[in-house]
Each structure stands twice: as structure tokens, then as C-alpha cells.
Automatic annotation (TrEMBL), chain A:
<comment type="similarity">
    <text>Belongs to the bacterial solute-binding protein 5 family.</text>
</comment>
<keyword id="KW-0813">Transport</keyword>
<dbReference type="InterPro" id="IPR030678">
    <property type="entry name" value="Peptide/Ni-bd"/>
</dbReference>
<dbReference type="InterPro" id="IPR000914">
    <property type="entry name" value="SBP_5_dom"/>
</dbReference>
<protein>
    <submittedName>
        <fullName>ABC transporter substrate-binding protein</fullName>
    </submittedName>
</protein>
<dbReference type="Pfam" id="PF00496">
    <property type="entry name" value="SBP_bac_5"/>
</dbReference>
<dbReference type="InterPro" id="IPR039424">
    <property type="entry name" value="SBP_5"/>
</dbReference>
<feature type="domain" description="Solute-binding protein family 5">
    <location>
        <begin position="83"/>
        <end position="423"/>
    </location>
</feature>
<feature type="signal peptide">
    <location>
        <begin position="1"/>
        <end position="18"/>
    </location>
</feature>
TrEMBL record, chain B:
<keyword id="KW-0472">Membrane</keyword>
<feature type="transmembrane region" description="Helical">
    <location>
        <begin position="176"/>
        <end position="196"/>
    </location>
</feature>
<feature type="transmembrane region" description="Helical">
    <location>
        <begin position="12"/>
        <end position="30"/>
    </location>
</feature>
<keyword id="KW-1003">Cell membrane</keyword>
<dbReference type="InterPro" id="IPR045621">
    <property type="entry name" value="BPD_transp_1_N"/>
</dbReference>
<feature type="transmembrane region" description="Helical">
    <location>
        <begin position="145"/>
        <end position="164"/>
    </location>
</feature>
<feature type="domain" description="ABC transmembrane type-1">
    <location>
        <begin position="95"/>
        <end position="304"/>
    </location>
</feature>
<keyword id="KW-0813">Transport</keyword>
<dbReference type="Pfam" id="PF00528">
    <property type="entry name" value="BPD_transp_1"/>
</dbReference>
Length: 509, 313
């Protein structure tokens, strides 16, 4: 999927060279005098992070920055997202699956110079659990965490948790902070063990500089500046005029042109996100599975995908994207309006039927997709009333169950439990559509504690089949992760989980 | 004169108190829950309750109001739900960017409006007047974001003269500050300038037909002297008011332009705080905007009464 152009770049137009390049403004301020213009690496992201406390924020822009500043015990590998050693070099599980012993890396230090020890891990995890911070649910099965010595952490569990590594390593929300930190400063300052340390932040940018005592391979570049450019046209112009070197603020409709543009490189890989439509299973007539199946048969997924994402997403009828080891090939809904009509009749639904569809301007692709869906449901006699809300109102209505149907996506899932458990278990914390099927519950419960990988996959496959057949979610597509960077930069890779790691970036000499 | 000033200042203070009550009420009446929003889609009841308590949102609304109002009177606007920073700090951090942009935009606007408006009025229905009318009509009707993006594509992309967006503090790099200021200032300046051009034209036209101007001409005063002493001085007086209003509007943040140019001003801050239902920041921003309007109105009124003694009567 990676595209590389072999032609030499003609990026720098004469006028840019003539002194209007912003090179001198984008210096990372790390005092790296030897690097000259080449030492500046500026990444354009679309929004300012809300705050920098990794345990409290839930915002993607914050994680884009924090990914480079903090480490976790384990980390998803760039290739297949399986959990690899990071601050933990090794781990063992007891025979009853209830005790996990982690051995920690030697010689790692925090940016303030204090050495990293097992106590920091205990402090970080206890902080999340005791203060009930945003990710405390990830520790739901953890009974105790202790540090028998400086380089060992022991976690005891209330029940087997085969996906524990993914729970503690899948993203920087589970970052290890120093036990000596003044917690009130974490929102604006950072003290991690990662390859870059926080240099400064303002309302328009955040700068990081290389951490020379990094325990892993030290970065090649002197630092990274994250500049907040919300408008895609401005971000892309800044990229082509050499003011920034990297951006993920790429509108899908521009991808084809950028692919042909020899001054930039386009990185496009399938991501682990998925987008879906959910109907209210607690509200007539959508409480009738026949009605939900009728809608599922009427939807033309490729058309919805094309309209919302152009060529940057793959239609899918289950949640997990093709390419994941957990992918389950199941697609029972061929677009079939006759079938849909007879299902509606069977359910005894009077048409025309109005279906409110709640979408949010925060994610414009849902608005576009809703318009296409509306036209596809029209022949069925279903009038779609598109309700565009701002995200705060949207979430409010979702939480209160005040909807016929809504659209949204789930981002950054790795383990199958992330894809199904909270969303489709009866009483699952994110089961807003109020789906309930004892068969599904049973499958999910068994899968959650099943240590054997093969058996676990088969249980999740069966659960997925049930969820798709019951149309708890009507799955639409998996989007690609799309990022562009300046021609000549090497060492950078787009990842399926959209984590951005700049420690491997090498600038053209 | 002093009585008038005192009376107007007192009025402004009463309005300010009213605004703070209204701001609080409106902000809290808007649907949407900041705690839900902070947690994102992955929602957990225990975490939700903990966060809500920490933000003080479990208190009765009236208690919340007096806590906030008490703080505001002493200059403490609370801390942001989103970042945990003091609201005063967040506002102060963004003030230089906002003031830079507002001042530069007004300058651009006046540089366009006064010469063009005056010239159009002196030769009504001439080619120049027609062109001026059409241009200012375009300036008023073209959406700011479109104009901004066009300027970026041409002057930052194709020509590469200015950066595509972002703000450079004056203290860090004066040349860079100026360069980053040009495109956003021109975008907003063109819009404000279009409004002010129309206003200048009609104001000068009116002044030209005044009786004392005819008298001056009859006395045999030169055209230039008539224009400078009898027309412009009177015609530009009302312009002070309109410019004041435009400046207040610019100082309260031109959201669209700030987003397009990644300009870290108060408009962006206000928008972010609406989106994240960051009540303390939003209340602080609304209060500040009200203050800006009140102060500028007061200054304009006082200036006016100074320039035209009939006003304070």
C-alpha cells in the first residue's frame, strides 16, 4: 500500500528558496546547531491536544504527541499489532492464568533523570484505578499490583484475562509516569521515558526534543514540532511549501491527486477502525430484528463507502478488518431491496416509516454517509430524518437512548474484545443500542477468559456472526490510515492503529 | 461632561453584571454534557461520577453560579475542564494574537475604506464609484473562509510569499510575526473594509450636501480646503462609531478566519470551549467579549461627546 515516487523532487520552487521559507521559524529549539535546516521536523496535526495527562485525556491529538513522549510496558508491533516488549522485556503467566509477572528493562530513565523502576509502574496503574481515570475499565479484572523488587511487577487477576497485554499496551492512555511526579503538573508538562521530551507548548504548537538518554535507540532527528493546522487546505499547502514535513490532515478526495504528486509521499494502510450504524433495539419498530435486517439488506455498503471516503476505506460487514489475524469472513447481506421489503412486511411495519438518524458534524463522514443511506432506504418506504448534532449534544442523546438510529465509528481497536464486548454484551457500558441476546452474552463471556488463541478466535467468530445476523450494529466500512510526508524522508511508517512514532524518522541529508 | 462619563460607566457596570448572569445561564442551558464529552465514547459510570464530582458539576446550579461569580469578581475565572489551566491564563495567552489580528485588520480596512469611500462620494455614479460599489459588494458577500483559502493557495502555495498558517509571537521574531499576520489580516480587513467603504461613501455624500459646506464653497474656499476642513471632519465622525463596533467584533475573535489560518486567538478558544462544553472558559470568554464591547462603546461615546458637544446634552 505504501507508495514511493522514484523521481527526484522539484518541490522547492525558486520563490521558496528566495527566502520565504519558514525554515527559521520551525526550528525545534533543541540547540542542535549542527543540523541546520535539516534538523527541523514539523508535523501538522488538525487540533490542539486538550491536555497532556496520558491517563486523563481521551483525545486523538493528545495521543499523537504523547506517543513520542511516554512508554508503556508493552507496545503493538508496527507489522501485525501483536504485543511486543517495551518497558517490560519479558512476562510469565501462572498456570491458573491469574498471576502475571513482568520483568522490566534495565537502565531506563525518565526525562527528569530519575531512574525507571517497578514502583513507577505500580504508581501509574494504581493512579488510574484509584482515581477512576478515563481508562480504569481496562483494569476491571486486576485485583492487585505489586513490585517485589526494582525490576519486577506482579499483577494478580480476579479471572483469567488473555488480552491483558492489549489492555495495558494498546495505547498511551496506559503510559508509565514517574511516581515522584506532581500530579497537578501532568496536564501541561510531561515526564516520560520515551524517545522525545516535551520542550514547550503554546496555543499554536508543541515542541519535543530528542531525549539523549533514551533507553532504546535514540531518534535520528533533533526534535519534532507539532503544529495545529485545522484547515486541510492550509495543512497541505504548508506541506508543499516546506513549512511542515508531515501531516495526517488529508481530505479523502485529495488522496488520488497526492498519489501523483512527486513532491510528497503518500502512506495509506488499512486501519483497525470501523464505522457503523446502530438502531435502537429498545424502540419499536427497530426492536424487531426483521426490521433491522430489512435495513441491512437495503444498504449498499460500497456506495456509502465511496461517498464518505472515496478510495480510502474498505466496505465490511463485520467489525474486524481483513488483514487482522482476528478477521472473520462473513457477509450475509447482499443489497437486495425485494428481500428487505418482504422482511418489513413480515414484521408488519406500516410504511412510510420515518427513521431518525443521528449524525455529528464532529465526524463529517457520518453526515455524508447518512445522505447516501437516506436515498438507499427510500425505495423501502423508510424516510430517513437526518439529525445533525454537535458532538456534545450527540453524546448526550446517545447516553439517554434518545434516538432511532445513529452512526459513529470505533477507533483504535486491536483485541477482539475491544471490537465486541463493551458494545454488544447486555448491560455492556457502550451498548447504547440496547442489544441483548443470551447467546451472544455467553459467547463473549467464554471468549473473554479463554486462554487458547484458536478457541478464543472461534468463540469471537461465533459472537460476530450472531451480532451481524441480529444487526446489533450494521457495519459499514474500515477506513485507511492516510498520511503524507515530504519526499526524501525515510524510516517512517504508517501504522494500522494510527499511532505516530517519529523516533525512526531520517531526514534527507 | 464628567457627569455624562460617570453615568455611562455606571450603566456599563450594570450591563456587565447582567451579562455575567446571562452568560452563566445560557452556557448551562445548552444541551450536552462536558463529562460525557471528556470521556469520549468509551463510557464507564464510576469514572463518569468521579469526574463529575471533581469538576463540581454535582453541585446545584445556584451554588455553581455563586462559586463562579464570587471568583469572577475577584478576577479568578476558574480553571478549564479541558486542560486544567486557569481561564485567565488561557485568555491572556491568546490575547496578543487576537489584538495583533484585530489591529492589523482595522488598519487594512481603514486604508481601503477612507480613500475609496471618499473618492466614490466625490464622484458619484462615476466609473470609480461603480467599481467601488461592486468591489465592496463582493467583499461583503464572499465567505471569509473561501477568501482565506484562496489567499493561502495563491500567496502561500503558488507564490510562497507568506506562511500557509500559524502565528509567530512578535517577541520571538518580528519579521515572522508580520509575515504570519498579512494573510489573515487582509482576509478580515477586506470584509471590514467593504462595510466601512459603503459607510464612508454615504457619510461623505451627506456631509457634502450640508449647508455649511455650500456656505464654505460660496465663500470661495478651495476644493481641497472644503474637503479637509468641512466635509471629512464631519463625515468621519460617525465612522468612529462604526470602526469601534468593527474593532470590538474583531477583538471577540473571528472564528472562521482563525480556523483557516490556524490563528490561536480568542475566537478559536471560544469555539473549542463550546465544542467541549468547557463552561469556565466559555463563561470567561463571553464575559471578556462583553467587556470589550462595553469599553469600546464607552470610549466611542466619550470621544464622540468630546468631538461633538451636542451629544452629552
Amino acid at each position: 500500500m505504501r507508495r514511493r515516487s522514484v523521481l527526484a523532487t522539484l518541490a522547492a520552487s525558486p520563490l521558496v528558496v528566495a527566502g520565504c521559507s519558514a525554515g527559521e521559524q520551525v526550528d525545534t529549539g533543541d540547540g542542535d546547531s549542527g543540523g541546520g535546516a535539516g534538523s527541523a521536523f514539523v508535523a501538522a496535526i488538525s487540533a490542539q491536544p486538550d491536555q497532556l495527562d496520558p491517563h486523563k485525556t481521551t483525545a486523538y491529538p493528545a495521543f499523537q504527541v504523547l506517543e513520542n513522549v511516554y512508554d508503556t510496558l508493552v507496545v503493538p508491533s508496527p507489522d501485525d499489532l501483536s504485543m511486543q516488549p517495551s518497558l517490560a522485556t519479558d512476562w510469565e503467566t501462572s498456570d491458573d492464568e491469574l498471576t502475571w509477572t513482568f520483568t522490566l528493562v534495565e537502565g531506563a530513565t525518565f526525562h527528569d533523570g530519575t531512574p525507571f523502576t517497578a514502583e513507577d509502574v505500580v504508581f501509574s496503574y494504581r493512579r488510574i484505578i484509584d482515581q477512576q481515570l478515563a481508562n480504569s475499565a481496562r483494569f476491571a479484572t486486576v485485583a492487585d499490583i505489586s513490585a517485589p523488587d526494582e525490576s519486577t511487577v506482579v499483577m494478580t487477576l480476579t479471572r483469567p484475562t488473555p488480552n491483558l497485554l492489549s489492555r495495558i499496551g494498546a495505547f498511551k492512555g496506559m503510559a508509565i509516569v514517574s511516581k515522584d511526579v506532581d500530579e497537578s503538573t501532568l496536564t501541561t508538562q510531561a515526564n516520560g521515558t520515551g524517545p522525545f521530551s516535551l520542550q514547550g507548548s503554546s496555543a499554536s504548537e508543541i515542541s519535543l526534543s530528542r531525549f539523549d538518554d533514551y533507553w532504546g535507540d535514540a531518534p535520528q532527528i533533533g526534535g519534532v514540532t507539532f503544529r495545529f493546522l485545522p484547515e486541510p487546505a492550509a495543512a497541505l499547502t504548508a506541506l508543499t511549501t516546506d513549512q511542515v514535513q508531515w501531516t495526517d490532515n488529508v481530505p479523502p478526495q485529495r488522496v488520488a491527486t497526492l498519489d501523483d504528486d512527486e513532491s510528497v509521499e503518500l502512506g495509506q494502510v488499512p486501519s483497525v477502525d470501523y464505522w457503523y450504524l446502530a438502531m435502537n433495539c429498545a424502540k419499536a419498530p427497530f426492536d424487531d430484528v426483521a426490521v433491522r435486517r430489512a435495513v441491512a439488506f437495503a444498504v449498499d455498503r460500497p456506495a456509502v463507502t465511496e461517498a464518505a471516503k472515496f478510495d480510502t476505506a474498505r466496505p465490511n460487514q463485520t467489525a474486524i478488518p481483513e488483514g487482522s489475524e482476528w478477521y472473520y469472513d462473513y457477509a450475509p447481506f447482499e443489497t437486495d431491496v425485494d428481500q428487505a421489503r418482504s422482511l418489513l412486511q413480515q414484521a408488519g411495519v406500516q410504511t412510510p416509516l420515518t427513521m431518525g438518524l443521528m449524525v455529528t458534524s464532529e465526524y463529517p463522514e457520518t453526515v455524508t454517509a447518512a445522505q447516501v443511506l437516506a436515498s438507499q432506504l427510500e425505495p423501502l418506504g423508510i424516510t430517513v430524518d437526518i439529525q445533525t448534532e454537535d458532538f456534545a449534544t450527540w453524546l448526550d442523546r446517545q447516553g439517554r437512548g434518545d434516538f432511532d438510529a445513529f452512526m459513529l465509528g470505533w477507533l483504535g481497536n486491536i483485541d477482539p474484545a475491544d471490537f465486541y464486548e463493551e458494545q454488544h454484551r447486555t448491560d455492556g457500558p457502550n451498548n447504547y443500542q440496547k442489544y441483548s441476546n443470551p447467546v451472544t452474552d455467553d459467547l463473549l463471556d467464554r471468549a473473554a477468559v479463554e486462554p487458547d488463541q484458536g478457541t478464543r478466535k472461534s468463540l469471537y467468530d461465533q459472537a460476530a456472526k450472531q451480532i451481524v445476523d441480529d444487526v446489533s450494529y450494521l457495519y459499514l466500512y474500515n477506513p485507511d490510515a492516510v498520511q503524507v510526508w515530504e519526499q526524501g524522508i525515510t524510516g517512517y511508517e504508517v501504522r494500522a492503529d494510527k499511532a505516530v512514532n517519529f523516533d525512526t524518522v531520517v531526514l534527507p541529508s | 461632561m464628567t457627569g455624562f462619563a460617570l453615568r455611562r460607566t455606571l450603566q456599563a457596570l450594570v450591563v456587565l453584571v447582567g451579562v455575567s448572569v446571562a452568560a452563566f445561564a445560557l452556557v448551562h442551558l445548552v444541551p450536552g454534557d462536558p463529562v460525557r464529552l471528556a470521556l469520549g465514547t468509551r463510557f464507564d459510570q464510576a469514572t463518569y461520577d468521579a469526574l463529575r464530582e471533581r469538576a463540581g458539576l454535582d453541585q446545584p446550579l445556584i451554588t455553581q453560579f455563586f462559586t463562579w461569580f464570587g471568583g469572577a469578581v475577584t478576577g479568578d475565572l476558574g480553571v478549564s475542564f479541558r486542560s486544567g489551566d486557569p481561564v485567565t491564563l488561557l485568555i491572556l495567552e491568546r490575547l496578543p494574537a487576537t489584538v495583533s489580528l484585530a489591529a492589523a485588520s482595522i488598519l487594512v480596512a481603514l486604508l481601503i475604506a477612507v480613500p475609496l469611500g471618499t473618492a466614490s462620494a466625490l464622484r458619484p455614479r462615476s466609473v470609480l464609484d461603480g467599481a467601488g460599489t461592486v468591489l465592496s459588494q463582493i467583499g461583503i458577500s464572499v465567505p471569509e473562509f473561501w477568501m482565506g483559502i484562496m489567499l493561502i493557495l495563491v500567496f502561500a502555495g503558488t507564490l510562497g510569499w507568506f506562511p500557509a498558517g500559524g502565528y509567530v509571537p512578535l517577541s520571538e521574531d518580528p519579521a515572522g510575526w508580520l509575515r504570519s499576520l498579512v494573510l489573515p489580516a487582509v482576509t478580515t480587513g477586506l470584509v471590514s473594509g467593504s462595510v466601512l467603504t459603503r459607510f464612508t461613501r454615504s457619510s461623505v455624500l451627506e456631509a457634502l450636501s450640508a449647508e455649511h459646506v455650500r456656505t464654505a464653497r460660496a465663500k470661495g474656499l478651495g476644493a481641497r480646503a472644503v474637503l479637509n476642513w468641512h466635509v471629512l471632519r464631519n463625515a468621519l465622525l460617525p465612522l468612529v462609531t462604526v470602526t469601534g463596533v468593527q474593532l470590538a467584533y474583531l477583538l471577540s475573535g473571528v472564528v472562521v478566519v482563525e480556523i483557516v489560518f490556524a490563528w490561536p486567538g480568542l475566537g478559536q478558544l471560544a469555539l473549542q470551549s463550546v465544542q467541549s462544553r468547557d463552561y469556565p472558559v466559555l463563561q470567561g470568554a463571553v464575559l471578556l467579549f462583553a467587556l470589550v464591547f462595553l469599553v469600546l462603546n464607552l470610549v466611542v461615546d466619550l470621544l464622540y461627546s468630546k468631538l461633538d458637544p451636542r451629544i452629552s446634552a
